[in-house]
From TrEMBL, chain A:
Allows the formation of correctly charged Asn-tRNA(Asn) or Gln-tRNA(Gln) through the transamidation of misacylated Asp-tRNA(Asn) or Glu-tRNA(Gln) in organisms which lack either or both of asparaginyl-tRNA or glutaminyl-tRNA synthetases. The reaction takes place in the presence of glutamine and ATP through an activated phospho-Asp-tRNA(Asn) or phospho-Glu-tRNA(Gln). GO terms for molecular function: asparaginyl-tRNA synthase (glutamine-hydrolyzing) activity; ATP binding; glutaminyl-tRNA synthase (glutamine-hydrolyzing) activity; transferase activity. It comes from Candidatus Daviesbacteria bacterium RIFCSPHIGHO2_01_FULL_40_11. It catalyses: L-aspartyl-tRNA(Asn) + L-glutamine + ATP + H2O = L-asparaginyl-tRNA(Asn) + L-glutamate + ADP + phosphate + 2 H(+); L-glutamyl-tRNA(Gln) + L-glutamine + ATP + H2O = L-glutaminyl-tRNA(Gln) + L-glutamate + ADP + phosphate + H(+). This is Aspartyl/glutamyl-tRNA(Asn/Gln) amidotransferase subunit C. PANTHER family: GLUTAMYL-TRNA(GLN) AMIDOTRANSFERASE SUBUNIT C, MITOCHONDRIAL. It holds the Pfam family GatC. The gene is gatC. Belongs to the GatC family. It is an enzyme of class 6 (ligase). Heterotrimer of A, B and C subunits. One of its GO terms (biological process) is glutaminyl-tRNAGln biosynthesis via transamidation. The lineage of its organism: Bacteria, Candidatus Daviesiibacteriota.
UniProtKB/TrEMBL annotation, chain B:
One of its GO terms (biological process) is translation. The keyword Protein biosynthesis applies. Its EC number is 6.3.5.7. This is Glutamyl-tRNA(Gln) amidotransferase subunit A. The gene is gatA. Allows the formation of correctly charged Gln-tRNA(Gln) through the transamidation of misacylated Glu-tRNA(Gln) in organisms which lack glutaminyl-tRNA synthetase. The reaction takes place in the presence of glutamine and ATP through an activated gamma-phospho-Glu-tRNA(Gln). It comes from the Bacteria. One of its GO terms (molecular function) is glutaminyl-tRNA synthase (glutamine-hydrolyzing) activity. The keyword Protein biosynthesis applies. Gene3D superfamilies: Amidase signature (AS) domain. GO terms for cellular component: glutamyl-tRNA(Gln) amidotransferase complex. It catalyses: L-glutamyl-tRNA(Gln) + L-glutamine + ATP + H2O = L-glutaminyl-tRNA(Gln) + L-glutamate + ADP + phosphate + H(+). Heterotrimer of A, B and C subunits. The active site is at K58 (charge relay system), S133 (charge relay system), S157 (acyl-ester intermediate).
Length: 97, 449
């Protein structure tokens, strides 16, 4: 399975990864090789097999609905690259850049 | 006496006898780190404590107030405001964090070379890789720079470096230890575990860190409990399975010879050796490299450069590759061909183990197909790097526990014996590992640095 440079560009945009031209070429090659390798999964007959997403067999794990200590606002903001009025500062959603 | 040569268990006994103080213990390790770490680059951060049992913590595990980078440039200034659950549990036991250990960026790698902060070197030969991704933890324990370490294992990242560095590494069953505060790679695979100087130490640390946590819904409430009488038990009559698929093409002759000798030793100790088959294990690496990147592509959306960390151009090469591979596998039109297919193969791999464990108590084989390789050998070939984990990945797909125990040397480099167990049955693999360790001298061998 060949992942073309255009597909690499598309996937990188979906994943919000800025890539250089050189990287696009390199990923097109290396990811294509990995996809070739995983093709072998098609040799396995899985028509009557259920998928596994979790191996613990646990479900509906609940805790008591009580309040607990949590991080202070100061702690939560302690690693933020940009802050304003004790809040995270981010780019506007509706504005252009 | 060189305090740093003691195992964790021996250190605790010596402290109880007042052979030395916690202050002297910490000073001895700090002194040794100052001399040895520049040669092997196993620590990214070093704390000069005067109290506590010095533990080295993989840098993918959050430590309050101590810089935690996960080996990534994107977190180069990140100081966690809280501790991972395992850290709180260790602190309660009188353990202190002596340092944070180097690792492949976000635990993605098998050689330690994917760290943004330089590669760790193998203490047995400085031109060789230490294995990965828990590269720094393995090297630090092997070089006696800490009493024990914690690592994380998503596809072999505890067991494989333990094998390549000649020390003990335990990946518990998925859900045995809380993952809260571990920087996730692939959430349905990740598990924290002990990296230690002896099997008894691994058991003790698992006892300390296991148990329920309301911050991790997949974490089992039942804790692994330390039953001292079990360690003294023998392995007479223990049924040991040998999977024929783990001794085929690709296994280095030297590693095969050493592992087969170890199996002979187990037989001499009274175990019964039975051939088993894990027919779907040949598809494990392929299934893993669909499922894990898919979980990564979802998990790594959180790195938005707004709440913490740098911008997404700071991700390293392998991290970007896996995010894209996962994004592609999950994208519209490909989901059934890739993700859903791989999740079904995961079921088959799991069923292979369930069938085998109807006949045997544990399964043994090599951890890694080769000993430590030269630095740089596989960096340009990601697929070749992925195949280094061919014998360890299946256990993560199935969620079962696995132990790596030193079992000899091939051309001067350590070889590990892998002991896999039934889900939740760490006890039996630790017993087999302990009995083997007691009957051999390999764990006493130390690298000369």
């Amino acid at each position: 399975m060949k992942l073309t440079r255009d597909q690499v560009k598309h996937v990188a945009r979906l994943a919000d990864l800025p890539l250089t031209d050189e990287e696009e070429e390199k990923y097109s090659q290396t990811i294509s090789k990995i996809l070739d390798y995983v093709e072998q999964l098609n040799q396995v007959d899985t028509s009557d097999v259920e998928p596994t997403f979790n191996v613990t067999g646990q479900n509906n794990v609940f805790r008591e609905d009580t309040t607990d200590a949590c991080l202070s606002q100061e702690e939560v903001l302690s690693n933020a690259p940009k802050k304003k009025n004790d809040m995270f500062e981010t780019k506007g959603v509706f504005e252009k850049e | 006496m060189d305090i740093t040569k003691l195992t964790l268990t021996q250190t605790l006994e010596a402290l109880k006898r007042k052979d030395f103080s916690e202050k002297e213990l910490n000073e001895a390790y700090i002194k040794k780190i100052a001399i040895i770490n520049p040669k092997i680059n196993s620590f990214l951060e070093i704390k000069k404590n005067s109290r506590g049992i010095p533990a080295a913590i993989k840098d993918a595990i959050l430590t309050k107030g101590i810089k935690t980078t996960a080996g990534s440039k994107i977190l180069s200034n990140f100081i966690p405001p809280y501790n991972a659950t395992v850290i709180n549990k260790l602190l309660e036991q009188g353990v202190s964090v002596i340092g944070k250990t180097n690792c492949d960026e976000f635990t993605m790698g098998s050689s330690g070379e994917n760290s943004a902060f330089g590669t760790t070197r193998n203490p047995w030969n400085l031109n060789k890789v230490p294995g990965g991704s828990s590269s720094g933890s393995a090297a630090a324990v092997a070089a006696d720079l800490c009493a024990f370490a914690l690592g994380t294992d998503t596809g072999g990242s505890i067991r494989q470096p333990a094998s390549l560095c000649g020390m003990v590494g335990l990946k518990p069953s998925y859900g045995r230890v809380s993952r809260y505060g571990t920087i996730a790679m692939a959430s349905s695979f990740d598990q924290i575990g002990p990296m230690t100087k002896s099997v008894a130490d691994a058991r003790l640390v698992l006892d300390w860190i296991s148990g329920g946590d309301e911050y991790d819904s997949n974490c089992r409430k039942e804790k692994f409990t330390f039953q001292s009488q079990v360690l003294e038990a023998k392995i007479k009559g223990l049924k040991i399975g040998l999977p024929k698929e783990y001794f085929g093409a690709g296994l280095d002759k030297g590693v095969e010879r050493v592992v087969k000798e170890a199996i002979k030793k187990l037989e001499e100790l009274g175990a019964e050796i039975i051939e088993v088959s894990l027919p779907n294990s040949e598809y494990a690496v392929a299934a893993y490299y669909i499922l894990v990147p898919s979980e990564i592509s979802s998990n790594y959306a959180r790195f938005d450069g707004i709440r913490y960390g740098g911008t997404r151009d700071n991700f390293g090469e392998e991290v970007k590759r896996r995010i894209m591979l996962g994004t592609y596998s999950l994208s519209s039109g490909y989901y059934d061909d890739y993700y859903a297919k791989a999740a079904r193969v995961r079921t088959l791999v799991k069923q292979d183990f369930e069938k085998a464990f109807e006949k045997v108590d544990v399964i043994v084989g090599p951890v890694s197909p080769t000993t430590a390789w030269n630095l740089g050998d596989k960096v340009d070939n990601p697929l070749k790097m992925y195949l280094s984990d061919i014998y360890t990945i299946s256990a993560n797909l199935a969620g079962i526990p696995g132990l790596s125990v030193p079992c000899g040397f091939s051309e001067g480099l350590p070889v590990g014996l892998q002991i896999l167990g039934k889900q939740w049955d760490e006890e039996t693999i630790l017993r087999a590992g302990f009995v083997y360790e007691q009957a051999t001298e390999w764990h006493k061998e130390k690298p000369s640095l």
